[in-house]
Each structure stands twice: as C-alpha cells, then as structure tokens.
Amino acid sequence: MTSTSESQPKSAKAVHRAAVITHGKPATIGPALERLEKVALEAGVELLLPGEEVEKHGHGEPEHDLESADIAVVLGGDGTMLRALQRFLGSGVPVIGVNFGRVGFFASIRREELESGLARVFASNYRVVPLTTLDTEAKGEHASAINDVVTTSSVRGRMVELGWAIGGEDLGVQPCDGMIAATPSGSTAYNLSNGGPVLVRGLDAMTVSFIAPHSLHVRPLVVPRGLDLEIRNETVDVSASVIVDGHAFTELQQGERVTVRLGDRTALLATLPETTFFSRYRETFGS
Q: Active site residue: 78, 148, 204, 245, which one?
C-alpha cells in the first residue's frame, strides 16, 4: 500500500495573497474577519474575498481569480473547511483553518490563537499535507470527495439491500441502512461513528463500512488504490441516496449503481508544524 506520508509534507510557499472563506453566519464570524484583516495588514498580505464573502460581510471588492492566492484561510468549522478544500481541489492552493466550529479536526489554529497562528502562516511557518480523495461516478455524472461517499436509504426508517463488489469481485447483497466509503481524512467522521477503522492521514486507501448491517458477520474493509468499489441498489421499492461530502449527488433506483475509487487529485491541507494528525486525534478523541 503506497503512502503520501504526513512525515514528508510539501514545502511552504511565501504568502503574498491569501483567499478567505468563512462560516455561513456573518454575525458569528464577522469579528474574526476583522482580526484576520489586521494580521494581514501587519504582514503585508493581500486578502482575496470571493463575491459571496463580500456580499455576506458587506465590504471589500470581490476577487474572481482566487486560484492566484498562495494560501486559503478558513474561519469556520469542518464543514467550512470541506467547502474550501473542495473549492481549491486541483488548484495547488493549500487551505489552513482557524476553528470556529465544534470539532474542527481539519483546523490547525484555535480561535483564541488567530493572531499568533496566522502571523506564523503569513511568515511561511507552515507545512502542506496532501489529502487522498475519492472519485465517484454514477449515471455518467462525476464528483470528488474529500471525506466520504455515503449510500443510504432515501426513506427514513427503511433499510436497503445493497449489492457490492470490490475490484470486480462480487461480495453479495447486504441488507443495511447504508454504506460508507471514506478517505483517511473522512475515516474519523461518519465512518468512525459507525464502527469503521481510522486510517492515519497519508495512507493511499479508503475504508468501506456498513451502516446498521442486518448481519452479525459484516466487517469493515480497508481497500488500496486500484480496486474500485461498486455499490448496486437491489431494493425493490426503495431508492438509495448517494451523498458526497454531505451533499446529495444522485438517487439509485433498483438495479442502478455507483462506483467509488481513490482519486487522482489530492487536496492540500496546510497546518502549523506542530499540528500533526496524531496531535489532533489525541485532542479530539483522547480521554
């Protein structure tokens, strides 16, 4: 199994321009944006705000060329981080987070340390970790996931019967509430809460786990690159919803299928040097 080990991060670039993505509620995040603007001014860093951020906060000029930024700064929680990582996927722009959410597993900087943390980032004291992604294909449509692809019953309280195959080998039909395919980053989210394994960031693999399987023998799997996961809806009267990083992707009727594989592109997560996967894991899940 290959690795994009976190022990060998990409080099940090000098920061002259920083894109800004913030939490959805301006009242919650407005004061933090003002704090960011002061740090950027002192460091001589130009801030780039997309049109929706200008509209949300009521000031600034919209910037359309966000991919010209050296780094993207997120003020928010894991949902905002996912949105930013998706937005800059394939652009070469790394994303760093100041946590204004509940868990903030992706974030590197605590909200009370915004000034000191971002001053270090703007002085190029950060590192860039590549994150494995998933490619999803169904009915001729494609989507990329940073965290996970969830196939679940579209009717609350109704199970589905999902056929599945890995690497072209059929593994039968499993009655359940759904299936989760997760990246190492996503393995600590919905996958973990359903009893799936945690993959250390840097592994080039995905987890496959079931949601409430109607079996005593089903176990989660770790699947390497090169083996596609195919999920088929074999339920007669219930459709299956495919959800990519928390957003609806498609509906599978009986006999329709979705394919999930490790993606060719990596998302770029920027962190402070001391904020490793294991330090965040210990802080988040430790007793």
A: 78
pTM of the model: 0.90
To the query of whether residue 78 is one of the catalytic residues in this protein, the response is: yes
Cα separation, 176 vs 275, in Å, equals 37
Q: CA-to-CA distance for 112 and 222, rounded, in angstroms? A: 37
Q: In which residue ranges of the chain is CATH 2.60.200.30 found?
A: 134-262
Q: What is the CATH number of domain 134-262?
A: 2.60.200.30
Asked whether 37 and 59 are in contact (CB, 8 A), the reply is no
Alpha helices, H only, 112-260: 114-122, 190-193
67 burial type by CB count under 10 A (0-12 exposed, 13-18 middle, 19+ buried): middle
CA dist 86 and 99 (Å) reads 18
Separate counts of helices (H) and strands (E) for the chain: 6, 19
Rounded Cα gap, residues 158 and 174, in angstroms: 14
- pLDDT for 73 equals 97
What digits encode the pLDDT tens for the residues 105-137? 899 999 999 999 999 999 999 999 999 999 999
In this structure, what DSSP letter does residue 184 have? Answer: T
Q: Where does CATH 3.40.50.10330 sit in the chain?
A: 17-132+266-285
Average pLDDT estimate for 27-45 = 91
Asked whether the beta carbons of 62 and 51 are under 8 A apart, the reply is yes
Say which CATH topology domain 17-132+266-285 has: Rossmann fold (3.40.50)
Give the DSSP H/E element, type plus range, for residue 258. Answer: strand 257-262
On whether the CB atoms of residues 243 and 152 are closer than 8 A, the answer is yes
**Cα 117 from Cα 121, distance rounded (Å):** 6
